[in-house]
Amino acid sequence: MLDINKVAVASVRQILEPAFPDRPIKPSTFPIGEDGAGAYVMYQNGDVTDAVIDTHQSQANRIEPTFDHTGLIPDHIVKVGEESKPLTALGHRVADAAIRFSDGAAEVSEALAAFAKGNALPMAKLAPTTLLFGTWDSRISSGATGVKVTRLFNAEIRAHNVVPVPTAGQYIASVPRPAELKNKELSEEGMLDCPFSSSLGGVIVKGEIVRTASLNMRGVRKLSVNVQEYILGLGLFALTYPLNLDLRADCNLVVTKSEATVVNEDGTRESIKLTFEDAKAFAEKVAKAFGVGKAKVFTYDEGKALAKLSGKAAAKAEKMEEKKKKATA
Fold first, then answer.
1. Is 108 buried (19+), middle (13-18) or exposed (0-12) by CB count in 10 A?
2. pLDDT(201) > 60
């Protein structure tokens, strides 16, 4: 569908607008600063202010579950106590604690170790979206491999030339105030009149809202040859998937224009026709030829996690005791 050896990057650029054009939209909120107060990520871009509407991590978390029940990947289930969830719902993918302390931990470690040696086949069979969206098995002190799988797919939404909008309001209790109670006690029960104000009323966008998604074809080429077409198929599926853009409360967006392009290895750029229907058909074809791995159930073992945590706590206490002895010697 795309020439793996010719193309460096394939990308889709979409122009978005609010479903309700006259209203502010609310970007992602992050705890920023020493007090951990919520804030938008905004920055100066020339003479205007731009804002991050949805990060690449958030976009990956929205797209990865779209592979469930498509037949393109194994539909693994992770059981944590009474709860069961798909592997695609785990924040750190195969490096998540729910997997590291499960009965599948050894198999995952073997797949990561093979990947580090240049063999991506075990990971492609076990958890192919990990190759696409990346992971870092960084908890070395808990027995992790330290292997980092660089993401091949990246997407984000930014808005150009935004004006922050403050917000304010007033809550009025619906019952009489008991005079003998303090404000804190009343507030805990929703019985205290309470005005509020915030800088997080969203942003008015004067410029464009742009979603960019890209697939690193050079990264696909770095994978072992026996998995390249399969991961390419998954990447094109992710690149063209018609994503639900009802991102959060007061941030409902629609696509008004979409353009697919490639950057070739010789530096030339060209527009291409790339539809989701074609990408899906290609992904299904290469997945069938590759042979999708078998679906499994991984069971989280809380005992393993507690044993590791207890061991680390005991080692830390022992180290502190040694320091005390040296200090008093």
1. buried
2. yes
Domain boundary among 200, 221, 252: 200
User: What is the C-alpha separation between 309 and 115, in angstroms, rounded?
Assistant: 28
Buried b / exposed e over 52-91, threshold 16 CB at 10 Å, is bbbbbebbbbbbbebbeeeebbbbbebebeeeeebbbebe
Same domain, 128 and 76: yes
- Statement to judge: residues 172 and 208 lie in one domain: no
The answer to whether the Cα torsion of 102, 148, 75, 288 is positive or negative is negative
320 falls within a domain: no
**101 in the same domain as 48:** yes
Look-up of token digits 């969830």:
85
Per cent of the chain over pLDDT 70 is 94
272 with 143, same domain: the answer is: yes
d(CA 123, CA 112): 7
Range of the domain at 307: 7-162+202-312
Q: Considering the chain, what is the average pLDDT of its residues?
A: 91
Eight-state DSSP code of residue 93? G
Q: What pLDDT is stored for residue 325 in this prediction?
A: 66
Q: What are phi and psi of 317, to 5 degrees?
A: -65, -40
In a domain, 321, yes or no: no
3-state SS of 289-318 is HHCCCCCCEEEECHHHHHHHHHHHHHHHHH
**For 264-291, what is the HEC assignment?**
ECCCCEEEECCCHHHHHHHHHHHHHHHC
